[in-house]
Amino acid sequence: MNTMSVQLPEGELTFEQDVQMVMSNLPVPDPCWRLTDEQGHEHHYASGPDRYPTLTAKQGDVYWCEDCRDEHQDSWYVCRTCGERITPGTRIDTTPRWLGGPALYYLNGKPISQERANELLTR
Ligand SMILES: [Zn+2]
Ligand SMILES: [Zn+2]
Question: How far does the centroid of ligand 2 lie from the alpha carbon of residue 58, in Å?
Answer without folding.
Answer: 15
